[in-house]
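PT: before anyone asks, these are the final sequences, not the draft ones from last week. 916 residues across everything. Please model them as a single complex and drop the result in this thread when it's through.
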Amino acid sequence: MAAVRRGNGHKSYFASSDDTKICVVMVGLPARGKSLIAGKAMRYLAWVGIPARVFNVGSYRRNNTPQPTATFFDPHNSEGEKMRRAAAEAAMSDMLRWFASGKGVVAILDATNSTRERRRWIYESCYAANVETLFVESICDEEDLIMNNILEVKTTSPDYKGQDPEVAALDFRNRIRNYEKVYETIDDNEKHFTYVKLINVGSTVIINQIKDYLSSRLVYYIQNLHIKPRSIWLSRHGESEYNLVGKIGGDSSISERGEAYARALPGLLKKSGVPPNTKIVIWTSTLRRTIQTARHLAAETGFEKLEWKALDELDSGVCDGLTYEDIAQKYPEDFAARDEDKYNYRYRGGESYRDVVIRLEPIIMELERSENVIIVTHQAVLRCIYAYFLNTPQEQSPWMEVPLHTLIKLTPRAYGTDEQRFKADIPAVSTWRAKGTSAKHQDYPTTEPKNEVPATSA
Amino acid sequence: MAAVRRGNGHKSYFASSDDTKICVVMVGLPARGKSLIAGKAMRYLAWVGIPARVFNVGSYRRNNTPQPTATFFDPHNSEGEKMRRAAAEAAMSDMLRWFASGKGVVAILDATNSTRERRRWIYESCYAANVETLFVESICDEEDLIMNNILEVKTTSPDYKGQDPEVAALDFRNRIRNYEKVYETIDDNEKHFTYVKLINVGSTVIINQIKDYLSSRLVYYIQNLHIKPRSIWLSRHGESEYNLVGKIGGDSSISERGEAYARALPGLLKKSGVPPNTKIVIWTSTLRRTIQTARHLAAETGFEKLEWKALDELDSGVCDGLTYEDIAQKYPEDFAARDEDKYNYRYRGGESYRDVVIRLEPIIMELERSENVIIVTHQAVLRCIYAYFLNTPQEQSPWMEVPLHTLIKLTPRAYGTDEQRFKADIPAVSTWRAKGTSAKHQDYPTTEPKNEVPATSA
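LR: through. Structure below.
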């Protein structure tokens, strides 16, 4: 390959037209998972490189009314009605300013937007600003789901901060009753709108008048979401023969210490906390070192196993099989360019992190549909998957440290993802390289297993 | 890259589980585009490597009743009812045999399946054979669409072969009336079924209880289909500097003759037949030679232009920048292996045709959503896109001849795709290599433009 290919992949991968702007308008009674959907959609869009932002009307309202009681939401309370209207207008005007600045592609307007009149106002305001609207209504009539939502999320809402959870839950149910009085579902009167209705967490989905590609992708993403409790475990392969000599890429086998990690993996998984009778699916790449690493786990548990080519390591093109020292020497300019912008740098004849994210997109879609999954993959791929769940900015994710012989447990929550790391007591080389150095792979010391280090990102 | 990577990419790309078997059950009155959807879904599945087959109940019925009149379909005609039932049973038993043989993954049962009772029978027969059902109902109340369908498709149906088209259309409308008498749309009584309802060609879509990944992909594909008339033009880039010296890959500029082709392209497109006021979108890869080839076309027409990384040429890995003679000499085993199974052969550190199909999948999705598009891309990529539209078998598509300086016009029809080729009167090297040879790129003679060579594939 004579030249580094230009990498404008992402924009044209998702956007049908350069100037599409979309306002995703959430619709639904309180406790229907609107904020959850809004947050996930924003994270997904950011991850695929589309500037997206949530405008939460509630947080505008809290500027003036930080802790309202249910009566504030009574449709006969004209003072409350006025203040809620003002909050919606403030959110709308900030949103339109954001679009006008040229920085925004998708805005998500997170509020109940529960009347036809309110929705018409949003549609017309957006239309005047050349912004398309996509209404996303979440409907739920399963009491269990609603109660879970009330207890898990709303009692931790800023509206009820410091209050008795039971009193808060009761007040919140009364607030819902007030919304129910005026709630109008999207119906045939609004059939010219582009909308999607999610009924009982996507068990039925109604899609109307989707026009552009980006909306179609987004709706496909949203319809794949579920809220069943589950965890996702991430691990790199055990130390490989190439790791030992500091070479990147290739398809080498795992080392003796890597084999020890493969044998330790079933125990490590158990230690991380797996509820009884949990079915976990094992995903690996198609490369030897991940398949070998998952071998004992599969044999001991009998879990289903899938090999994905999309989980193969970032392709380092002409640098495949070289050490970082070799690369610094043979391709000094490339080496510097990669340090400068590691996310976008594409190896000659190979891939960039941005490219890897594109090919991981179906993996993320399948992960959203799945329940418990353990993924045994490679450093760069793991960083990209991790970045999706923890909302890591693009410029940071390629530098994240993911040691060998460590199991990461991610547990999605309503507003973010819990993380725990479990280190196996098996030494391995370090493959982490700091920006601006070519040094890497010194042995790291055997330490006591460092477990239970919870971290939450919201 | 030390070893050729193993390529099991596809299966795990689409199938959540190795033993998923799905029966797609079409539902709808006659002339609602069921066979069109069935045919396209089958072609799409075959293209992504999933064994799929359509079982058309009408063709089973024709074994005994080749040319029935509308009265045959009268619900009070018990003889007709009996024979139609027998045809459905014959189709079902062939389908279950096909699944049992292990060859099938997705069967499409193409019939009206217009009563709840019939659908329950299908569901139960499949359930007993461990086959999942996905009901796809097409509903249409726009008279124009239905009439178009009646005139374009049904008067060419074997049921009316050799008959006066107007008499046939009248009889067919009466047949529809007979079906309408007993038609039951899928409703809340069937809410435990996995189904999708397409209302007026996907302008509204209702999706219910999708469980597995393959169904979710298939439904996403179906909901992106439209039936507006349009064409898709395919062209390779103009002759490149690399073409002149017989090298593959790289990112070279176009040659002088390539530039002449770029200048001729607007005229060639016009000559191919473009209805007045037609808006065409120009797609290129991110590589220089396609962007240069589309430059004058974009400038002269003002058409919107999109660059897609997914349209970049098949990555030839370590062979990038070599000639076929070099490859035969340097990597004789690989050279032979590629000839043996060109579709699956993955260049060391590069891609196979199978890999290219995976990354073209979103391109096909976007093409289905789009109207008129001209794609300027590369030999292998063009072969893959062409194979999708013309249903070319995997083992043939990598050997297809696609000369330089030739515009291919594809026009999708109800049952297949029309093809025309327009050759520019500008000489270029031939880049076609026959199986078992390393010879290629002799100059091909300047010939008179060879236009209007229609071909249809059904």
